[in-house]
Structures are given as C-alpha cells and as structure tokens.
Amino acid sequence: VQLQASGGGLVQAGGSLRLSCATSGLTLSRYAMGWFRQPPGKEREFVAAISVSGGDEYYEDSVKGRFTISRDNAKNTVYLQMNSLKPEDTGVYYCAARYRVVLFESTGHDFWGQGTQVTVSS
Predict the structure, then answer these.
(1) What is the mean pLDDT of the chain?
(2) Helix or strand holding residue 91 (H, E)
(3) Sequence-ordered list of residues with C-beta below 8 angstroms from that of 49, at least 6 positions apart, any chain
C-alpha cells in the first residue's frame, strides 16, 4: 500500500494550493481519509477528514470555510483544496487512511503518506 501526497509548495498569504493524495494497493472506497499537518516545532494535528462515502466532511475549526476535502474513488485519489492560506497553515501535510472509520487523532490510522511541505509567506 502506498499513499503519495503532492501539491505542496511556497505560496503567499491569501493564495491557494491543491494537495493530492494518490493511493495504490488498497480499495480506496473502503477507507475513510484524513489530512493532518505538522507545523514547525509542533505536534501533528488534524486538518480535515472525509467519510468512506464522501458524504461527510470534517474540518479543524481554523480551516473551516477555507479548506475543502474531497475524494475520487475511481481515480484512487483524495484532495485538499486550500484557499485563503495563512502563515499559520505552514507545515508538512500528510494524508492518512483508516478502514471504514473517520479518525480525528493521528493514532490508529492504517496507512500514512510521506508528507508534502506547505509554506505560506506573509
């Protein structure tokens, strides 16, 4: 199983990025998916999650209204559209998969991607 996160980069405050998490070796339609981030010098934290069906989305309070998580099971890919980026959004972003169940904590996920760096300059 592999989760490949991509799409990070350097962007000015107010800008946008779209992260992708390409999966292989698993049946994505059976997994709830999440995005987490690790700011510099801090612990990994929850950002967003989406249910198996895609019908339910969950967001950390600071990203509500700015970030949108989505999934395309046919393409085996999960996305995180990030708009109105702020310097405090800076960090390494990871995607994670959990069989059937949405998790808001880092622990308990079945698989993790390698992370993609997002840097937002002021």
Answers:
(1) 97
(2) strand 91-99
(3) 32, 33, 34, 35, 57, 58, 69, 102, 103, 104
